[in-house]
Every structure is written in C-alpha cells, then in structure tokens.
Design a protein that fits this description.
Layout: H1 9-26, H2 48-53, E1 55-56, E2 59-60, H3 76-82, H4 101-112
Antiparallel strand pairs: 1-2
Helix pairs in contact: 1-4
The protein binds protoporphyrin IX containing FE.
Length: 117
Amino acid sequence: MDQSNVTRGFLRVKEILDGAISAWGNSPSNGGPPDLSGHGPLFSWTTKAALLAAVGHGNQLIQPDVIGNGKGNLAHLVIVLRTGLKGPATRMPEGGPYVPDDQIQEIENWINDGCPD
Ligand code: HEM
C-alpha cells in the first residue's frame, strides 16, 4: 500500500495534538481557542525539541526514562490524554472533546519507537 501521503513521526504527533486544540476550540461548549498559558511557559509541541522539553503544570509531558523502552504508556502525555493525571489534572483537553483512543495509541507507539523525527 502506498502510504507516501501518510504523515509519520513527530509531525503526526504534532498533527494529533494540534487537532485536539482545534477540536476543543470548535466545540460549542467551549466556544473559542483555549488559553493554554496556565500550563506554564514550557508547554509546547511546536517542534520535537519543544515537545521533549515540555512541562504542563509541573509535569514533564514525556519523561526521558519512558522513551524507547516499551514504557510509552507511562508518559504523562499519554496518561493525561487517556485518563487524566492523578492530582494535577482531569483528562485533557479539559472537558473534551478528547483525543480518539487510536490516536493516543499512535503517540504511545511513537514514544516506544524512540520519538523519531
Ligand atoms: C502534564 C500534562 C497536563 C497537565 C498536568 C494539565 C493540566 C491542566 C489543568 C490543571 C487545567 C485547568 C487549569 C488551566 O487552564 O491551566 C488544564 C486546562 C486545559 N488543558 Fe491541560 N494539562 C496537561 C496537558 C494537556 C494537553 C496535552 C492538552 C491538549 C492536547 C491540554 C489541553 C487543555 C485545555 C484545552 C485546557 C482548557 C484551557 C481553557 O480553559 O482555556 N492539556 N490543563
């Protein structure tokens, strides 16, 4: 199968996360783009480097020790999208619409693959 048009690697993860923000802003119950500033100054996935350094409310989104070793399910980013992080946050994006399970799995797989470009 020709998958040359299928986005892969970091750009796919960025597409999923950007899509989550768009969907949140387009949801009538939210009504407009979110204010993400409360997450903190390092909250970003503009580039792969930014995502790997990203912190939300004091929690690193992708801890270095869960990359490339089958522990992607333990990344704070994966947990917060799937169920919410105990203590700091309910499931994200707050109140939904939430990221579809198969897309969360793509992010987990990307982390298990070692976060390729
Ligand atoms: C470690 C990961 C994260 C933590 C601990 C966290 C925590 C929180 C908390 C406490 C709030 C409510 C207070 C505030 O507005 O700042 C919030 C709001 C929100 N978060 Fe997160 N978050 C995380 C990751 C994410 C991710 C990955 C997304 C999107 C893909 C996201 C999307 C949102 C949205 C859309 C809001 C609502 C903003 C608004 O009301 O304008 N968060 N988050």
